[in-house]
Amino acid sequence: MRIVLFDGIMEMHVVFSLARALRQRGHVVSVTGKLAGGYTFIEDEADRSRVTTAIERVRDFGPDAVLVFRPASLPFDLLRQLREATQVTAGRLVAWLSDDPVLWKLSYGPVLDFYDVILHCGGRKLLEFYEEKHGRPTGVNFPFWTDSVAFPYVYGRYPAETDAVFLGNVSDRIRRQRYFELGQLNLSLRIHGKIGDDYHRLFGGYLDTTEEIVDAGSRARVAINIPQYFTDHLGQNTWFDGLGDLGHFQVPSRVVQYAAMGLPVVSLEPGCDAGGIPEVLKAADRNQLEERVRQIIESESAVDLSLAIRERFLRDYSAGARALALENILESEEWRRLDAGERAEWFASFDGTQVDAAVVAEARSGSLAPRVSIRGIGRTAEELQRLHLESEVRAARGCTVAVIGDGWGDHVSTARIVTRALGRLGHDVLEVSPRIQPELFRPDPFSEFAGLVDVDSITAQNGSPVDVVICTGDRFLPVRKGGPTVGSARLPVIVHGINSGGYDNRLGRLISAADAATMTSEPAADEWRARGFSSVRHVPDLMDRDFCKLFLMQSNRPQRVAVLAQRAPHITVWGGIASWVPGEVDRFIIDEERTQSHGLGRVARAVNGLIVFALSDPSRPGRMPNRLLGHALFGGGLVVLPRNDSVPSALRSGVNCLVAGSPDEAHRKITRLSRTPEALEAVRAAGVRHACTEFAAEERIQLLLEEFVN
After folding, report:
1. pTM confidence score
2. Which of 335, 353, 553, 634 is deepest in the core (most CB within 10 A)?
3. What are the helix and strand counts (H, E) for the chain?
4. Contact yes or no for 61/6 (Cβ under 8 A)
């Protein structure tokens, strides 16, 4: 079958693991990725544009089935478009309700009748509720899942740091009681999630990636679950009459993750309702929970419990099991003849053991691997650095490139990095600036730009033909004497390194004047493309081989920590770094260092530390990472980024960097990673590898040129 997995939830491993299992079963699968967020129907124009574009791709794909992971992304008009796109090939439209039944009033119930099949997350009482409200059986229980690629078996891989671990948030009104329940346990315990005020000092750091979750799971003896009770929603906009009678989430995502990793689980469930994973030990109160945790820790049968819950996961809660179930429900209407109790247990009739094993085997060969993995890096950080510098790239044919910009005295300005990269590629470079060629510039009548640049006059000024123009940054607007269509041999213009985020008419004017435009902000580039500007792409602030050469000329790595910031005030929020970092702290302030002699060498020295904090740059509008992020990653130290919207999507905490919300959290994560040198070295090497691909100036600039120069 041809199957589309439409949109996604926060736990994207759910989507990707199902895609792997379906592909292993021989299906052709298209994954849209996460399109929007929130639990009420989308209204934002950019969100709607992304969803509309995804619907058009569904139409072109011609699916037999579309599985929607977030009904809130499809208000009635967009849902109707998706249904029409699906019906072109008589495909079936399916929805999975991951927050069932909490969002019934807000975004599940109103659109339920527009789907062919509903995959619920809950037992008999929940299915009876839907049948009563909607007058018919609406679907089956289809609880959370994952696979052994995202969450391998890791029980006992490393010496335990804690008796117990809890994955989940404990900060808001609905979940806050969990914190105090956990805080009163006489156990060595770590909470990984949003925590709020930490009176009992239980915070172990927020886990930003599946890799970090796996690492934390491999260092705990027992996992704790405290389910979310629906009565806690009283007074919230999610509340409706009857919600409290439906109990609690039977199998939260955290429990499936615990089971996949092989962690014995104890769940605090007063009343000990039936349902859920049989191998999860239930406790009626805190005392019993603490007692059962201690029994597992002190028991010789802990490994048997681990293997038993892992076996249950493979059989009933793996992506392989869900792939088999999805095939069945798309091909058969037999489920409609079952009562609510039978539909609640229907999912357990599909054994995913062999499917999951096959997916793991294929993933190890690389074909179904996740986007980034810490395993199999192979080379050390130092080897990767040397190989990158030795792999000189040269253009097949040199050309003449006019580079328009400013900041020529700044060793890490966009204009200066581009000109150095072009020189190494073998191109001739003509530097164009208002200080050197004022006759090429004229004032902008709307005062939106520092000047308008007559690109058609550059060739005449140069005395020989120019093959392409690269206008760096967003201060100057390239214009043509006779308008955009003068001549048959139109001089290509690339605007490179736009640092502004978000959509506005000024940038629309700039981007429309160019044949291609690059933006350093990934979210901003996504938004412009969603609005129909297909010429826009994301290219981060780059680093070139001149820097790499200077870096490798250093004889050793000092025992110090580097803090990189655009301006000194940006360090304020991270002012506590020096209080716990051993040894010297080297602060590199880009605005203060840029005019010094030998500045590029100073950058090389700054990023040559054991740990490098690359602070985001709020001086640039939009969600911007540090301009020297690529340089820091190439340096091979452990790069730490502040947790905010500026973290690029390809940088994954615990894989090629660390992400933290405070110096204290960074300290916890660094300490944990440092206890296993092989994991630390893998992160360092992955960071260098990422810098040598995504941030390599010569390769990225040459790819841009090849679009316009034969």
Report:
1. 0.88
2. 634
3. 25, 25
4. no
